[in-house]
Amino acid sequence: MIEVGCAVDADGVHPWPVAPVEGHMLGLMSQVKAAEQLTIGAALEGSAELAWKAFGLHPLVDSVAVGRSLLSGYTQAFPDLGRALS
């Protein structure tokens, strides 16, 4: 799924044209998708390891160490999250 601008009229929704996905864009999209899949796995399995790996893999996070730190901060701020992950 992507978000694009569109026009809406009596005949329906008409998306505006978008540029083709090129190499560097595809790489970023793949990396974000992989992080999302790990996040889903972490939730389904209750896995803290998959959760910090998901954070660490995301392109806006620069290392696994930062991913672990983010997970620690979230589990402290949201105790139910910490209890859900093993």
From TrEMBL:
Q: Please give the superkingdom of this protein's source.
A: Bacteria
Q: What Gene3D superfamilies would the database entry show?
A: Lactate dehydrogenase/glycoside hydrolase, family 4, C-terminal
Q: What are the Glycosyl hydrolase family 4 C-terminal domain coordinates in residue numbering?
A: 1-61
Q: Which Pfam families match?
A: Glyco_hydro_4C
As one GO molecular function, the record gives: oxidoreductase activity, acting on the CH-OH group of donors, NAD or NADP as acceptor
* The UniProt record lists the keyword Transferase: no
Q: Which UniProt keywords apply?
A: Glycosidase, Hydrolase, Manganese, Metal-binding, NAD
Instruction: For this entry, list what GO says about its biological process.
Output: carbohydrate metabolic process
Q: Which InterPro entries match?
A: Glyco_hydro_4, Glyco_hydro_4_C, Lactate_DH/Glyco_Ohase_4_C
Metal-binding among keywords: yes
**Cofactor names:** NAD(+)
For this entry, the protein name equals Glycosyl hydrolase family 4 C-terminal domain-containing protein
Q: Which organism is it from?
A: Pengzhenrongella sicca
